[in-house]
Specification:
The protein is α/β, with parallel strands linked by helices and about 300 residues long. Helix content is about 45%, strand content about 20%. The radius of gyration is 19 Å and the shape is globular.
């Protein structure tokens, strides 16, 4: 029996994620949205591509949470983007309401699922989902570090003209301006990038990583990134469904690790069939620790607004 993955939200991120998951034949996919017809149309289109791709993944679109029953993983991408004139708090409160509604319906039908949160602001929405779901912290995971690290890896590979496969990179902290790229732990074929890229140039690449999402929004003008974000959560889905024990940076509820308590912050974790199977604590310099704590402080401000 194939695994089942539900994706909540049939916009660009959700629908492209359904595409990646089905094309890799990882699971059957349920695409759900409050919009009538959109998830059904996109799912049918994707299903009709499966004979060409030679993949036996079943894809359905629906507006009914009953169709999501017994999902192994539920990926939540639902939420509204910030609009001109909208305050951060307005965005937070609106998306918190959406998250509350989605999580209660998901848990009704898939009480044993693993939740992957993609909705923004990421860390605060993950914290809301954790508190609302009642699931253990190992089963509520925020997608941010995989995406941010991929952006960092892209820019490093371009700078050095090497294969992206040679590049490993670590980005910790909250998803946004306060993320903490760690050049010391980033390598090319095992060589630290600090030995390959001049410090001032490296700082520029770190800043471009922090601005990665904004750079794409500036180009698109209406809309935001979706290929890389959906690929990032697909890698997490694959690590869990295949029990890969893969180490990647994800947002997880910290309970004293890295000196941070009671907040979702991005750190390296081991992902397997049980979700987060281990939080890996790496040694940070005082400066890196200060950056991580500053990032956690930003998350704390956000969760205070919605009371989670």
């Amino acid at each position: 029996m194939r695994k089942k993955v539900t994706i909540v939200g049939s916009g660009n991120v959700g629908a492209t994620g359904a595409h990646w998951i089905a094309s890799k034949e990882l699971a059957d996919v349920v695409l759900i949205d409050i919009l009538e017809g959109v998830p059904q149309g996109k799912a049918l289109d994707l299903l009709e591509a499966m004979p060409i791709e030679k993949r036996d993944a079943h894809v359905i679109g629906t507006n009914d949470y009953a169709d999501t029953a017994n999902s192994d993983i539920v990926v939540i991408t639902a939420g509204i983007p910030r609009k001109p004139g909208m305050s951060r708090d307005d965005l937070l409160n609106t998306n918190h309401k959406i998250m509350s509604d989605v999580v209660s319906k998901v848990m009704q039908y898939s009480p044993n699922c693993i939740l992957i949160i993609v909705s923004n602001p990421l860390d605060a929405m993950a914290q809301a989902a954790y508190k609302l779901s009642g699931l253990p912290r190992e089963r509520v995971i925020g997608m941010a570090g995989v995406l941010d690290s991929s952006r960092f890896r892209t820019f490093i590979a371009e700078e050095l003209n090497v294969s992206v496969e040679n590049v490993t990179a670590f980005v910790l902290g909250g998803h946004g301006d306060t993320m903490v790229p760690l050049p010391r732990y980033s390598t090319v074929a095992g060589i630290p990038i600090t030995e390959l890229i001049a410090p001032d140039r490296l700082e520029q690449i770190v800043q471009r990583t922090r601005d990665g999402g904004a750079e794409i929004v500036k180009y698109l003008k209406t809309g935001s990134a979706y290929y890389a974000p959906s690929s990032a959560f697909t890698e997490m889905v694959e690590a869990i469904l295949k029990d890969k024990k893969k180490i990647m940076p994800c947002a997880i509820y910290l309970q004293g690790e890295y000196g941070i308590n009671g907040l979702f912050v991005g750190v390296p974790v081991k992902l397997g069939e049980n979700g987060v199977e281990k939080i890996i604590e790496i040694k940070l310099t005082p400066d890196e620790q200060a950056q991580l704590e500053r990032s956690a402080g930003s998350v704390k401000e956000l969760v205070a607004v919605i009371g989670v």
